[in-house]
Amino acid sequence: MGRRAAIGKAAFLRHPGAVNDPDEPATDPQLAAFRRSIDNIDAALIHILAERFRITQAVGRYKAQTHMPPADPERETRQIARLRQLAEDADLDPEFSEKFLRFIIDEVIRHHRQVQGD
């Protein structure tokens, strides 16, 4: 390798934000700040999902006790339409939000069926 190539490679390896090892944190302060914000949001999402599932599990137990079906397709349709509109208002892809919500709804229904012994 020529001297110029070696210098270029060394400069790249020292460049702020250059990641040589995928397990190494970025050294670029702006990228690190972005990532801290993303990590905080991810943590909040996990806690919000955990709380949502605690409530839907209580709903599942209630439905089992009162002999209600585990799924409510009419409510699901209304919820998806409502959340698609919220996504559009928030400049979030409504297709993505619907897929995400459908995934959650399907998991909730699976839990409700388990509680009812289906």
UniProtKB/TrEMBL annotation:
Organism: Aurantiacibacter aquimixticola
Entries under Pfam families matching the protein: CM_2
Domain of life: Bacteria
Protein name listed in UniProt: chorismate mutase
Entries under InterPro entries matching the protein: Chorismate_II_sf, Chorismate_mutase-related, CM_bact, CM_dom_sf, CM_II_prokaryot
E.C. designation(s): 5.4.99.5
UniProt cross-references to SMART domains, sorted A to Z: CM_2 (SM00830)
Alphabetical UniProt keywords: Isomerase
MF terms in GO: chorismate mutase activity
